[in-house]
Amino acid sequence: MCGIVGYVGTKPVLPVILEGLRRLEYRGYDSAGIAVGGAGNGLELRRAPGKLRNLEEVIRQSPIHGTFGIGHTRWATHGRPTEENAHPHRDCTGRIVVVHNGIVENYLELKRELAAEGHKFVTETDTEVIAHLIEQELKSAADSGKTMLLEDAVRRAVRRLTGAFAIGVISADEPDKIVAARNGPPAVIGLGDGEYFVASDVPGILHHTRNLYFLADGDMAILTKSGVVLTDFDGNHIERPVQRIQWDPIQAEKGGYKHFMLKEIFEQPRAIRDTTLGRISLDTGKVFLDEMKISDAEFRAATKINIAACGTSWHAATAGKFMIERLARVPVEVDYASEFRYRDPIIDPASLGVLITQSGETADTLAAQREMISKGSKTVAICNVVGAMIAREAHGTIYTHAGPEIGVASTKAFTAQLTALFLFAMHLAQVRGTVTEEESRTLIEQLSLIPGKLRDALRTSDKECEALARLYSNARDFLFLGRGIHYPIALEGALKLKEISYIHAEGYPAGEMKHGPNALIDETLPCVVLATRDSTNRDSRLRYEKTLSNIQEVTARSGKVIAVATEGDDQIGQLIDHVLYVPDATELLSPVLEVVPLQLLAYHIAVRRGCDVDQPRNLAKSVTVE
Q1: Which of 22, 210, 429, 613 could pair with 327 as two cysteines, CB 3.0-4.6 Å apart?
Q2: Is 375 a catalytic residue?
Q3: What pLDDT, in 10s, does the model give residues 155-194?
Q4: Any catalytic annotation for residue 120?
């Protein structure tokens, strides 16, 4: 979950790395550090606890210069967020420096072994053992009268590590060289004109190059001024395709918005349009998912769909269950990816797996995918990063073309995932013959209207949510209620609020209120109720009537109700004081619209409370370790 940036080239290294770290600060901001070489002073380190600006102040007071180096912004796993524990870490000689994203699970065993051989450790981190292991390999070779290259020492060291890691290593004895290795967390290599980059995520280097290698597990990259060499951990040369990233670097800037999160909320109409682009025919209602190595016959033969995801993606998955079961008439099981492989799930070749992850590198979701594959199931990945690990290992991929999402609290990635799930459900239904051509055309037409309706929802909801934030920003608790496909949206609304405002919030099925949560209701508890309706759907009308009963349960106990309702619904406005209206939509697509006011409400409450909206405490954007 940490951010890594490295550079070898002719430019001054400091601005390149600091700019890259600034773009990756969403991955970790407990501490930051940098090590550079190439100025004739060996390797110079600067580190600081806290956010990147603290490191920049340290460097301002004590400048450093060079032509190659590595930097790191940390999300703490082992050891407190102090200057001492900040990366980069040195070996005993001070001539080898390492940055690391991940967890070394056997570090205590290695640390004890190295300490017995005379190595002195100065931090609480697991990363420090990597630097000492590399030092030990180089020393052993020297004691035998041999010369060992840095990459060979790194290969020998990483083979002794248990756990997940992406590392960058430099040495004072081999200037203008960076060795990078991956086993779990992501690592990308940027290819420039006489300059080369390593980073833990695309935005860190996208402003310099769009041509990237995505390293796979077991890959190593050796970067020098003359180019990049890729090998495996045994030293065998390997080939990886160069991926050209189409994101505009400006997409990763705030674009005049106060926060990335607000910008990304307002980018949702474009994200949904781009996710559907080229995949639907309005004339025929057909859905085209071209990046599939799963045949129509296999889709027809599927007896079950297993979906695994984490956090916001799990909420999308749960909504997707309603879409798939309603349209394709195949049972769906949704798991938290972090729990999936630990329950020995029942999977067979007749079941299909679906993995949902914004980054495509979420450790738990990758582990769930591998569990599915090991038991004979083919898998489909829904992710936002072309070439990500989960897509490379899947039998089919639906990319959500949301563009880079910088805010830690996911917004546009979530609605793009809902869109991708709807496309998947429609494709499955069409292949299995569970929807008619007329139904397909109607549903696809409804989907095509969503970006415009979303723009309308954003226009009307923003100021209303800002006004509600003034009333409820001091609340200690919130309750979010929904029924059917709207229940996972209630969960998502609660998650957004707790993530960025630090208010305790709970999502609950509205029908379960009588079984406990009614005890919480009093005049201090705001309840957000999802009460949209699809006038063409009988089940939706029934759910709506039951939801009105839930609202009356809350108001009878003096609770404060904020309802999300469908435009034109005057009935609900007569029951409560606060209604946030969204445009009318078919039941299966209404979650895309109704989550918008929940995102904006969380955002404005967090802003009023003075919280760091883009970088909430204790959280990182991409969870690449278990």
Answers
A1: 429
A2: no
A3: 999 999 988 899 999 999 999 999 999 998 889 999 999 9
A4: no
